[in-house]
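We modelled the chain as a single entity of 364 amino acids. Its sequence is:
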Amino acid sequence: MRLPGPLVRIAPAVGVYIGLHVAGLVVLALVQDKGPTDLLSVLGHRYDSLWYERIANDGYGPTAPKSYAMFPLFPAMIAVLAPVTPGPTWTAGLVISWIAGIVAAGGLFQLGKHLRDARTGLLLVALWAVVPHAVIEVTGYTESLFTAFAAWALYALLSQRWVTAGVLTLLAGLTRPSASALVVAVGLAAGVAVLRRWDGWRPWACGVIAPVGFVGYIAWVGLRTGRPDGYFWVQRHRWGAKFDGGVYTAQAVWGYLSRKSDLAFYACAFVLLVALVLMVVQLAERWPWPLVVYSAVLLVTVIGTAGYFHSKGRLLLPAFTLLLPVAAGLAKVRNRNVFLIVGALACSSAWYGSYLMLMWRYSP
């Protein structure tokens, strides 16, 4: 049986993504050495995954208001898929995350190909699969699902498929708070198109549809908590997270780098510093401005929010647009050197992923 044309085109990217993650999971399994059941539990039944499972089983009521920090689409999908998935409820979350990662790989490939060429798209997928926190892409977290929506939304936006971009942004807005960056990027692009009278009614539709998921959920939490800033109140008073413009993050980076600290703190400081450098490179190379806006808003959100320093590397996983300059640069390098670079990154990512999932004492 032949695969449809679009699937054939993204098949190499999907193969690269799966291959790199299988290699990482083999390393994780060897380090853990307790059997496949325990490995699945490590991937799908810890920290935030437990919250999604509770919401999928019982809704927001029993754990409110703290559970309001978790956006609804992922647990809703778990609730739908769990009855037909072998094993406990949380295994459905793993299945969704794995499928979403593959879909995200296809979107990243198409985005890189659209902007440069197929080689750049393939390398963008490979780089995303070997960043330090890449193991999260195959856990019961929302990063893969959100990245799938975001990658295809940005590709649709650059291809002027306005309604598709709006719908995907709406879905991303129901997935995780990182959607604020996508809503701003897509909304601004739609606004520019409206002002310049491009493509008729479609940019109007995109601009109206795009923020509905994100704004709608924030408004719903406001109604449930009885205060318009309910979602942000929950983040601050139940999770200890608030926006301070980056003061906490700057102090944390300096503090951890100037004294002996745990590896996870060093890794997050490294990821943040590299992300800032890549942001400057992206600006200097003049990539399409909606991508720059998406990168910038996401980076400002992560750096500007106080608390959970050890999770900031994970929170930057959806900032795949920052990897575009690296992918484009590697596309000009000889195959042998590319294999060496990606291979080295894959080994370090697999090792760090094993540390993060098996030895680190907090949420990844």
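As a brief sanity check on the tokenised model: Residues 5-226+335-358 form one domain. The chain is about 70% helix and 0% strand.
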